[in-house]
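Listing S7. Sequence submitted for prediction.
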Amino acid sequence: MKSLIVATLAATTIALVSCVSKVGDVEEYETIVDETRRELVSDTRTEIFSIELRRDDAGLVVKGETGDAAVKEALLKRLGEEIPEELIDSVEVLPSEELGDERYGIVNLSVANMRPEPGHSGELITQSILGTPVKLYKTTGYWFYIQTPDEYLGWMDGEGVLPVTEKEYRAWIAAPKAIVTAPYGFCRERPSASAPVVSDIVAGNLLKLEGTEGGFYKVSFPDERVGYVSRSEAEPFEAWLASRELTAEKILSTAREYMGLPYLWGGTSVKANDCSGYTKTVYFLHGVLLPRDASQQILVGDSVDTKNGYENLQPGDLLFFGRHATDERPQRVTHVGIYKGGLEFIHQSGRVKIQSFDPDAENYSEYRDRGFLGARRVIGADESSGIVFLKNSPQYVAKEEQ
């Protein structure tokens, strides 16, 4: 009996050691996944890559999702070369088949929230505004995992986005539209300032232009609601886009319109915004689609030489702040603003405000002065610098078939 117990314990020990060894192997193989991600996926805020390894009786399971079939193929090839056992491919290339033909969407609220997970309790990571065409990748039935024209990824609820087919998506882009130019306003049921409200509207919102009635534009929403917007609060999108002037004077004039606007982490509209949401909104209203975050915005536009301080800055330049690089850790960009001139800059920090780099000025910010990292120039830059102009964006302007 004693020998049987000893044998059983020995077998159990061998099994446990084997199990631990296998777990260790999986952890070792995960370095291949990490290396592939670092090499082929530049930014997980804009590229889908969620992969894990686990073991079952049939072999090593590669599970997860990506938005790029080539990335999946490269990962499986590398794993196959390194792992001497059966690989079970359980990686889905999005968009998901459960979406059917509706793999696109149009934002259907004046300002719609995006979160890292499907649920209203999640952190607000960004927003998208009415009329924006987006891509859909997967759904829970009510929540949709979407990608906005600036390529940012996140979950939006079914009130915020209307799923559509590719044909409907392209029809929306091609349709004549009105863009809201007033900071804030209302779309009404009838062409009257006293008529009931259909929806609030904010600067940059896009609505299908159905015609004019007196002092109002007749418009329709992505979900086919119909309403009327005062002609003093909107313009035909095509004419508006053709009139955009990307000058320091225009940029700063728009930037000053939102003085005192409150801070909202993840906000990207004129209702409330964060620092990069503010700069993004200001430049969008002049025909430029900036990336979402400050750490992404610093990668576009023309570089400005700031080795000698602020002498080369020009009004309208984007200014970046954060943690300076050391021997132990890299630079970290955490904040962005717009240079105003005269050592002053306008930015969103608690509220939209103007502060200065001049130690003798009343509005001097020692904190921002110490945290200044550099600047980029969007005004005068071309698309080779990473700048995206709305007039050239297929999400905003329909291109003729070649």
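Caption to Listing S7: primary sequence and predicted structure tokens for the chain studied. Confidence is low (pLDDT under 50) at residues 1-24. The CA atoms of residues 356 and 362 lie 8 Å apart.
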